[in-house]
Design goal:
This protein is mainly alpha-helical and 211 residues long. It has one domain. It contains ten helices and three strands; from the N terminus they run αααααβααβαααβ. It has a three-stranded antiparallel sheet with strand order 1-2-3. It is globular, with a radius of gyration of 17 Å.
Length: 211
């Protein structure tokens, strides 16, 4: 799904690229659950599912959205824009390879490289490239924070709330990407920011800073 997203962005079909990125996000939200249900550790012990998951996630959540930001103009082809792109790629590379990228109590350590979400909102809201670059720099630094960000599908508490609101959030963005020129699309996207705010609040409440 990452490859057609990049192809669509390269051809100037930004809305199609966003839909592909959202589809990849939907698959990522259930792939672990399906893998555990299928008992892949027992049926294919020679395959390291976590490593495969990290490879796919780095492509779809880091490389693809960074390319999308550059191709769609979210990040300008300036020293600040290029440095922000490199910061996201490098920080997330170290973040994914960290021995405690996912904690024992099912939290992400540091900003969990949701660059696809950043790229989608930057496109929808037509974020100024300078502001977008500064945001990317801040979030790249946040990858190294010893802070527990919520893992929605495995949250120790409020899992139902996180999952249900996440589904509504995803549906709202899909609807807006399918009809980006509709009068209701932008207000819907702005309203959907309530979910990232809820996600951050739950992360502060349930995760927070760790040693």
């Amino acid at each position: 799904m990452g490859v057609p997203a990049v192809v669509a962005a390269a051809r100037g079909h930004d809305a199609h690229a966003v839909l592909w990125m959202l589809a990849a996000l939907a698959v990522d939200s259930i792939d672990g659950t399906l893998a555990r249900a299928a008992r892949v550790r027992e049926t294919t012990p020679e395959i390291d599912g976590r490593r495969l998951d990290d490879i796919v996630d780095y492509e779809n959540f880091v490389v693809v959205p960074v390319l999308f930001l550059l191709l769609s103009g979210g990040l300008a082809a300036t020293p600040l824009g290029w440095s922000a792109a490199c910061a996201a790629l490098l920080a997330s590379g170290f973040g994914f390879s960290h021995s405690e990228a996912k904690t024992a109590d099912h939290f992400f350590r540091g900003f969990p490289s949701y660059w696809n979400v950043v790229a989608i909102y930057a496109w929808f809201l037509e974020l100024d490239p300078t502001l977008c670059a500064l945001l990317v720099w801040v979030l790249a630094a946040a990858v190294a924070l010893p802070f527990g960000f919520l893992y929605p599908s495995r949250a120790p508490r409020a899992r139902g709330l996180a999952v249900i609101t996440g589904l509504l959030w995803g549906a709202a963005l899909v609807a807006a990407a399918a009809r980006p020129d509709a009068a209701w699309a932008r207000p819907l996207v702005v309203a959907s920011l309530a979910y990232p705010a809820l996600y951050l609040a739950l992360s502060v409440w349930l995760g927070g800073f760790r040693r």
